[in-house]
Amino acid sequence: MTVSPSTATGTALSARDIHKAFGRRVVLAGVDLTVRSGQTVGVVGENGAGKTTLLRILSGDLRPDQGTVTVDGTLSHCPQHPVLNNALTPFQHLRLFQEAFRLPHLDRAHELIDRLAFADHLHVPVKVLSGGTRQKLNLVLALMHDPDVVLLDEPYQGFDWQTYLAFWDLAAARRAAGGTTVVISHLAHDIDRLDAVIQLGHEATVMTEGAGR
Amino acid sequence: MRAYRIAARYHLAELAKNTLAALLLAVLIPVWILAAPQIFAAASLAFRLRATGRTLTASTDHVGMIHGCLGVVMLLMAFLTFSAARQAGPFDRRLTAAGYPRTPLLLAKATSLLSAAALVALYTTVWTLAVWSPRHPGFLWLGLFTACLVYGSLGLVLALFLPGELEGMVVIFVTSNLDLLPQSPLVNPDPHGFLGPLLPMYGSTQTCLAAGLAPTTPLRPVAASLTWTAALTLVALLAFWIRTRERQGAGAWTHALSARAPRPRRTR
What we know:
The complex is a heterodimer.
Chain A: E1 11-22, E2 25-36, E3 40-45, H1 51-59, E4 66-72, E5 75-78, H2 90-101, H3 107-116, H4 131-143, E6 149-153, H5 161-176, E7 180-184, H6 187-190, E8 196-200, E9 206-209
Parallel strand pairs in A: 3-7, 3-8, 5-6, 6-7
Antiparallel strand pairs in A: 1-2, 1-4, 8-9
Chain B: H1 2-16, H2 19-39, E1 44-49, E2 54-59, H3 60-97, H4 102-131, H5 137-161, H6 165-180, H7 202-213, H8 220-243, E3 252-255, E4 265-266
Antiparallel strand pairs in B: 1-2, 3-4
């Protein structure tokens, strides 16, 4: 199972010979991939094909049984299910992550919040927020420091159509600024917005360059 | 320092927002203290205080009051910390992976545990003083404080290994009952055997009984409680340190190497 780049310019993220099994169930068997700087790449595949497992391994959140991941630059991961603290407000989350990322101010975070339209919920405990708003906060925490490489696991679950479009505007702006984005995506809807698509399958992993551009 | 201040402020706010625990504490402690004389006979009870070896004689309702208050505060503190730790586990991993310094985060957690324990013990001591005059009120607070610390840190440890809230509450409930029951003079007025002093609640119960009823206040039970607290806290801290041991920062790096090389390694 090999996914290789068409050119060798500025590799932002690469994985070599990734294997992962949960018990006797083999999820990833020798996945290789290379993502160049500035690309927006989709990861697609059937349920259970290992998309989330691959992203967790790429982010360092999960250890593979075998294989190597190399990242050039800062990396951020937006998990599939929002990882938030229910007792805290979105603003308190921003303050904690401002400290974590050592950001001098929260201007970029507020810009993202305005684009995703949830500024009205900044001082409400997360536990009373809707699923979509929690997902918006989950996404802002992953993007607020403008990481070089960002891994997004179905980041628009629960978004309404306008927010879904706003998300792809943000992705396009990241691409224009040279940021690299890997997103678990739904091929039918999103192919036109991607530079390349990685198709995970039980038999083979295939990368299609220039998928929609 | 700023990282510590922010985390400590939010951790304390998080604990304070556990309204069920706050409500149970606010209601159960005065109810138990006021109800104890209506539940226990006003008879005197002779029992041996193991920490001093002396036999004490006390009113049954005072012994029942101490036993009940300890039961309430230990359960509530374990519930409070278990619930907060389970809630915060994955979030703390995300926060530290993003670069939040771990030492201030740990110190903030310790601060919130100590503050909650001190407040719960103070609230209980004040209510006790409203209806009774224990011999050494400061030591009564200390005994309750150590009970809160022991079970607060037990809650942290259980949150590491138990899958859900229900499992946690069952384990906390059963453990606290088995732990506290043999310490009570009401059921065990002449304790024997080597096992009793090794139980987590031995120190706190002996301290509270001595504080309320004995002429002197032995320090050894306090040391026993602090030893339990230290051991349990150490387990929780080690688990936190291991689980948040991830790559941080910028630059080119390699991670997720083969199982034979378990630690992340930077390539330049």
